[in-house]
Amino acid sequence: MRTTRTRTTWRLAAGAASVALLAAACGIDETDDAADIVPDEDADDDAAAEDEETAEDDAADDGAVTDGLLGELQDAGSATIGIANEVPYAFEDEDGNVTGQAPEIAYVVLEELGITDVSAEIVEFGALIPGLQAGQFDLIAAGMFITPDRAEQVIFADPDYCVSYALAVPDGNPMDLTDFDSVTESGATIAVLSGAVDEDYANDAGIPADQIELFNDVNAQYEALIAGRVDAVGGTSLTVIEQSEANPEIEATDFFLPVDADGEEVLGCGGFAFLDQEFRDAFNDVLSELQADDTVFDITTGFGFAEEDVRLAEDLTVEDLAG
């Protein structure tokens, strides 16, 4: 569990100290005749109103005065993220800790919002949006690509990374695969993740249906490749690199950009997904601050993302990607 010190406590202590200093500076003598002091009721009312307004402002600064889902999460101090167990985006490590580019950013942002206890639900990638809609978790922190279709179902924060695409092939690349067109022309069978953009990419590229094998789990794709049940796996360049480095039987092709149904190249950029607008806006505001001070940059590049791709995401908004 992560903890954070609130600024409200500091302000109250500082306010008490200021009162003490003010009393000394004004030379107030506790032995003065109290009867000579006539209370100013209007002044008292004004002071009470000012104190109440200041308290509300302080609480708002600390993210404590909110309604809806965000307020509930802040009151509880806890939230649940949904992930799909894909390295390096969001995964459970050997010690059972949930880490990855998206969870590590989420931990920092949520802490700034006063949410310090974060748990995770691991589901198949295609179950992330349905799981969010069913209330299984409070946000998706899985590095999900922002697309117009998905933006009709969930509310995305601005992107925090972009990444190119690649194929994983057997060592030596015996079928000389380089992109989706080469898969079609060679008659190769490609494994893609069901419910992910990979499925759309393969279909938009015109790969025949009998050459596409759908999988619900990332690791299962690569097990099928190593076993020779498929000829290639499509995925983001980072995932393909991670898998090829872990498995000497396979290698990664050069990076490329898929094309959409209109023949336009597509650069995938990912972000966090929500159902609650207020929660998303508050999260997005903190995310923007953490991008400005390079916290997001440091976390993301620490998981192998290219510096230029992280910088590219900083200049984009969800509207650029989702319309």
Would you write up a description of this structure?
The chain has 323 residues and is of the alpha/beta class. The chain has two domains: 148 residues, Periplasmic binding protein-like II (D-Maltodextrin-Binding Protein, domain 2, 3-Layer(aba) Sandwich), CATH 3.40.190.10; 88 residues, D-Maltodextrin-Binding Protein, domain 2 (3-Layer(aba) Sandwich), CATH 3.40.190.10. 44% of the residues lie in helices and 18% in strands. It contains 14 helices and 13 strands. Strands 1, 4, 5, 6, 7 and 13 form a six-stranded mixed β-sheet that branches. Helix 4 crosses helix 11 and helix 4 packs antiparallel against helix 12. The N terminus is likely disordered.
In brief:
With 323 residues, the protein is α/β, with parallel strands linked by helices. Helices cover 44% and strands 18% of the residues.
